Q: What sequence folds into this?
C-alpha cells in the first residue's frame, strides 16, 4: 500500500508541476508548499498520538529514541547480519534513486528535444508522471504476483541489476519516443 501511495504521489506531484509551470515557475513551488503544509496539518491532527513506554517518557513507538547525530547507535544496526544487509540495500536503492531524480531534469534538458524545443520542466513533469503511473501499476498488483513467481531474493537482485543496466544505458540514449536529440 505504501508503494501504491508513493506511485500515486509521484504521478500527482510531477503532473501538477508539469501543468502549472506553463503559468510561471512560482506556481509549482507554491503548489508543492501547499501540499506539504496540508500533509503536515493532516499528520498532526488526524493520526493518533503515540503513547510512550512507561519506563521512558521520551521514547517513540519502537523504544528509545535516537538522536539525529547519534551515529554510534545507528551504526550498530548496520553490523547485524540480516538487518545490516537490508539496510545497505535500502541505502544503495535510495542513493541511486535520489541521484537519478535530482539529475534527470538537467540531463533531459540538455539531451532531449520535443517538437523542436528542449525538454523543460513541463516535459520532465510529464515524464515523471508516467514513471509514477508505471510504479503504481507495479506496486498495485504486479509485484505481488512476481514475488510469488520468483521470490523476493531473486527480485531484489534482478531489480538492482536492471536498475544498474538501465542507468548505464541512459548514458547512450539519444532519442525519446517522438523526441530527437539536439545536434552535436
A:
Amino acid at each position: 500500500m505504501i508503494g501504491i501511495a508513493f506511485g500515486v504521489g509521484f504521478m500527482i506531484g510531477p503532473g501538477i508541476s508539469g501543468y502549472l509551470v506553463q503559468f510561471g515557475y512560482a506556481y509549482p513551488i507554491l503548489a508543492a508548499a501547499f501540499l506539504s503544509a496540508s500533509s503536515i496539518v493532516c499528520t498532526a491532527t488526524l493520526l493518533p498520538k503515540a503513547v510512550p513506554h512507561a519506563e521512558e517518557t521520551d521514547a517513540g513507538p519502537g523504544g528509545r529514541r535516537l538522536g539525529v547525530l547519534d551515529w554510534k547507535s545507528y551504526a550498530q544496526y548496520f553490523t547485524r547480519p540480516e538487518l545490516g544487509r537490508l539496510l545497505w540495500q535500502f541505502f544503495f536503492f535510495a542513493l541511486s534513486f535520489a541521484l537519478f531524480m535530482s539529475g534527470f531534469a538537467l540531463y533531459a534538458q540538455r539531451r532531449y528535444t520535443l517538437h523542436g524545443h528542449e525538454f523543460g520542466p513541463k516535459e520532465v513533469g510529464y515524464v515523471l508522471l508516467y514513471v509514477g503511473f508505471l510504479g503504481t501499476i507495479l506496486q498495485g498488483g504486479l509485484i505481488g504476483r512476481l514475488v510469488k513467481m520468483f521470490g523476493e531474493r531473486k527480485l531484489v537482485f534482478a531489480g538492482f541489476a536492471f536498475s544498474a543496466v538501465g542507468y548505464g544505458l541512459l548514458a547512450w540514449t539519444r532519442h525519446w519516443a517522438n523526441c530527437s536529440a539536439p545536434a552535436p
Notes: The chain is about 70% helix and 5% strand.
